[in-house]
Design goal:
Order of helices and strands: HEEEEEEEEEEEEEHEEEEEEEEEEE
Structural class: mainly beta
Low-confidence stretches: 4-10, 203-217, 375-387
Oligomer: single chain
Number of helices: 2
Mean pLDDT: 87
CATH topology: Porin
Distance between the termini: 18 Å
Radius of gyration: 23 Å
């Protein structure tokens, strides 16, 4: 811990000394410690119990050079207790605590053009869509330029996900255009177009032109457009917002081009109540009903859909760090070709007895179809599968209840306990092998987390 503190202070001092005179330097971020206990459903066996103590420190250093230029560096230190280097985690959680673990999360420059509304952010940064992150929510190298034109905010995005050979057209690029307008204090509307142009031939993955049903890591070359509209209307204590998106594109599978089309929509109604807000959301993803095409929903990048629904199992846990996120409704249904119907209810409450707060969530999920057409063999939910239809015993994925209760201590230290329990429906009948070696439905799963979060 002492070595970590030394590293953080050294980084801050170096950045401050490097800043020009009169520049305004600030350091912010959070320290988060989470004890997790969960059992996770495997695709082939009953749930397996897991426990871990996760630790994350993020530091956002901002250097305002003048009124028009700002430099930002966002660092991250992941040191789950007792864990050695794994993936992007550079060790340091094990005995001795030494690790090469200061990672770059963001590094960008913010520029304002004097006497205009034009702004630009260039560098490694977070890219989010306008649609509850069903298309993109991830950090990437990007250039984002925005301006207000006749009362309309326009934002253009270019991002490079991966660079192939510098002499060939084999990159993975993303383009976006946001248009937003606030008509009055009640009504806001927006629209977006995204283009994901994936020509990647990464040598670390199998050749997309010659996949086999066993190659689950193949990501096919694809050209995908997303067209979406969003709206938000607020009146007194009521609010309703929603969106609709059409996905349209082509992808190359086994050397053959096939179409890719899908729809996604959601609407949320909310109401202010004493001590907080309650809400209800409906979710829809279209199923793959074509034997020739791959009409599954495909997000461009990211795994962060609907994080504000306060669920932890069927939808992403919004506080997840290194313990992983399950997203069963997205992975097993929406992105697997079965489509998805979802209904969630939330309650966000504050100023409760003992100065506590509570965030409550409930969800029910169904496949839009209990049959996935795949006669041609296609790329589904990140996995290449062979020819043949997949038919389930039913369409009910299951139900989830989730709760988070917390309290601020010493004004800045947020201590919370959250937990969720999910019950699987007939959609999962005979999909796993239980401990007796028999085909069955998976056991129900849970997740609990005790978290200490310090923002600074």
């Amino acid at each position: 811990m002492k070595k970590m503190a030394t590293a953080v202070s050294t980084m801050a001092m170096v950045a401050a000394l490097a800043a020009p005179a009169m520049a305004q330097f600030s350091l912010g971020g959070y320290y988060r410690l989470t004890g997790v206990s969960q059992n996770i459903k495997s695709k082939s066996t009953d749930p397996t119990g897991e426990t871990m103590i996760d630790q994350r420190l993020r530091m956002k250093m901002t250097d305002s050079l003048n009124d028009y230029v700002k430099l930002v560096y966002y660092a991250e230190v992941d040191t789950p207790w007792g864990m050695k280097s794994k993936g992007s985690i550079g060790g340091g959680g094990e005995v001795g605590t030494d690790g090469v673990n200061i990672e770059t999360k963001n590094a960008y420059i913010d520029v304002k053009v004097p006497d205009t509304t034009v702004k630009a952010r260039i560098g490694l940064q977070g890219i989010d869509d306008l649609f509850e992150y069903v298309v993109i929510s991830e950090d990437a190298a990007a250039a984002v330029v925005s301006a207000d034109v006749a009362g309309v905010n326009v934002e253009a995005i270019y991002s490079k996900f991966s660079e192939g050979s510098k002499s060939n057209w084999d990159d993975d690029d993303f383009y976006g255009l946001h248009v937003k307008k606030k008509f009055n204090e009640h009504l806001k509307l927006g629209g977006a177009i995204y283009y994901h142009d994936n020509n990647s031939t990464d040598p670390n993955t199998p050749d997309p032109a010659a996949p086999t049903p066993q190659d689950t890591s193949v990501v096919p070359q694809a050209s995908t457009f997303y067209y979406g509209l969003t709206g938000d209307y607020a009146f007194k204590i009521f609010n309703i917002n929603g969106f609709a998106i059409a996905q349209d594109g082509t992808e190359t599978v086994a050397g053959k081009d096939i179409d890719s089309k899908a729809l996604c929509a959601s609407v949320r109604a909310a109401m202010l109540v004493p001590h907080g807000q309650v809400g209800l959301r409906a979710i829809y993803f279209s199923p793959d009903d074509s034997a020739k095409n791959d009409n599954t929903w495909k997000h461009a990048v990211g795994e962060w859909e609907f994080p504000r629904e306060s669920l932890m199992i069927f939808l992403p846990d919004r506080w997840v760090n290194n313990s992983g996120t399950t997203r069963y409704a997205m992975v097993d249904a929406a992105e697997a070709g079965f489509g998805l119907y979802g209904l969630t209810a939330t309650a966000f409450l504050k100023d409760l007895p003992l100065d506590t707060y509570a965030n409550l969530g409930a969800g029910a999920f169904w496949a839009a179809s209990d049959k996935r057409n795949d006669a041609s063999g296609s790329h589904v939910g990140g996995t290449l599968i062979g020819a043949g239809d997949d038919v389930r015993a039913g369409s009910t994925l299951g139900y989830e209840l989730s709760a988070e209760v917390g309290k601020k201590v010493a004004k800045m230290v947020d201590v919370s306990l959250r937990g969720a329990y999910a019950i699987f429906g007939d959609f999962y009948d005979d999909t796993v092998v239980n401990h007796a070696g028999q085909a069955s439905a998976p056991d129900n799963v849970f997740k609990t987390a005790l978290m200490v979060n310090v923002g600074f």
